[in-house]
């Protein structure tokens, strides 16, 4: 005979065995023991040799066991009747409640054990199924993200820090190129417009000082320029400085102001900014940069749409474009 080890017995089997011990074996042993005195009592009151002792004993066992089973089913019936009454009262308050058939004590215990095991198995199967579906879904999503069918694969992505630094470098490089273009355009204008008034060998020095002012609005020259081929007026130098400053940003809220231009003119062209009696022109007079006269030799050159090019032969074609 094969005997199951305690570790191999399931909770359901243990529950069934305990039920049989409590409802069958123990009551059966009690019935066998109680039948002995009952048999002795019956034998003592009956005449001798009418009924054998073994028959009396078997009858005692049968009577006691039948009484035990009758009592058990009577108690179960009473319990089921009360339960049915409770169900009826609940059904009146809840008409959708499901009807249940009466179940005996032993059947109820076995069904409860089976339902617990079934629920455990179903829960385990449901959890396993959900885990498999989630795993398959995650794998599909990861595979689609790694290589989407409607988009080309990304080979590599530049680090954010390198992209950030590249943006800074490109920005300042663009500013440097723009400033270089402005200075080259201004230098070309100065060489062209001042060629009738400045000697060729002095042109580089003259341009360098004006370009320093074009790079720094706070620049103030320390030396006055005195070498001219042809004499100029204060109107000419004011127009010259205005033509340069307006292309670099002249006016309220911009880099250059009329005061900056007047201060530069006072320092660089001091001998040209005097009255007939030799007194210097006032600062407020020099701030009026666009004032004209009949003797102007350098005129105001208003910038075109690009805001930079001058109206000189080398730049007229570009300005028209």
Question: Care to describe what's here?
Answer:
- By secondary structure, this protein is an all-alpha fold.
- Helices cover 64% and strands 0% of the residues.
- It is built from nine helices and no strands.
- Helix 1 (11-45) crosses helix 2 (53-93) and helix 1 runs antiparallel to helix 3.
- The longest helix is centred in the middle third of the chain and has 42 residues, at 105-146.
- The chain is rod-shaped and about 175 Å long.
- Residues 97-113 have low confidence and may be disordered.
Keywords:
321 residues, mainly alpha, 9 helices, rod-shaped
Question: What's the quick description here?
Answer:
This protein has helices at residues 11-45, 53-93, 105-146, 160-193, 203-215, 234-248, 258-268, 283-287, 313-320. With 321 residues, the chain is mainly alpha-helical.
Give the SSE layout.
Elements: H1 11-45, H2 53-93, H3 105-146, H4 160-193, H5 203-215, H6 234-248, H7 258-268, H8 283-287, H9 313-320
Helix pairs in contact: 1-2, 1-3, 4-5
Q: What is the straight-line distance between the termini?
A: 111 Å
Report the radius of gyration as a whole number of Å: 59 Å
What structural class do the secondary elements suggest? mainly alpha
Number of strands: 0
| Amount of beta strand | under 5%
Largest sheet: none
Mean pLDDT: 78
From the spread of the alpha carbons, the general shape counts as rod-shaped
| pLDDT < 50 stretches | 97-113
How many H/I helices? 9
Amount of helix:
55-70%
Q: What are the secondary-structure elements, in order, as H or E?
A: HHHHHHHHH
